[in-house]
Amino acid sequence: MAQECLIVIDAWKEPTPPNLINFPYLKDETKTFGSYLNHTIKSIRPNFDIFHVTSNREIMEEIDTTKDQVFPYILDIPIQYNKYYLCGFHLGRCIHKSAMELATVVTHNQIGIVFNMSLLFPNDDYNKMRERDWFTLYNYVHRLKNFTTDCAPQR
User: With 0-12 CB in 10 A as exposed, 13-18 as middle and 19+ as buried, what is 50?
Assistant: First the structure.
């Protein structure tokens, strides 16, 4: 069993209607980013357990979940890992909300946010995350086949 896992947050097939009204291109943007995530997850899968958290909604077709486990809520995932890396949709929003929920059952330092595998919501600024002590940001580096803080945004 892997000691670390990757959790993909809210890769929904359909964005919520109010968000589509305000950002009509959001569905295309999330589908495109979903294809990138799917490609990246392929190289991560051999070394990490992969989970998908859906918030009880249907997952986009761009991400293959057949070799992974899918759960409706973050607190449904197994709590047995040394490190939980979260990514998906959207940085500073659902990803961080899920991380805060997960922090109620594991320690804060066991949780990391994967910056280059997380899409920012259209009208957000990633500097917003620097306003308080959130979670350590990581990037996934294909060549290393691992997550690193070396290439992630620093304070």
Answer: buried
Distance CA 30, CA 89 (A): 8
CA geometry: angle 96, 106, 112, nearest 5 deg: 40
CA pseudo-torsion sign 89, 153, 108, 37:
positive
> Nearest to residue 115, comparing CAs of 142, 87, 141?
87
The reported pTM is: 0.93
**R_g of the chain computed on alpha carbons:** 15
Cβ proximity of 40 and 126 under 8 Å: no
Q: What is the pLDDT of residues 86-112, one digit of tens each?
A: 999 999 889 999 999 999 999 999 999
The number of beta carbons lying within 10 Å of the beta carbon of residue 138 is 23
Q: What is the DSSP letter of 34?
A: H
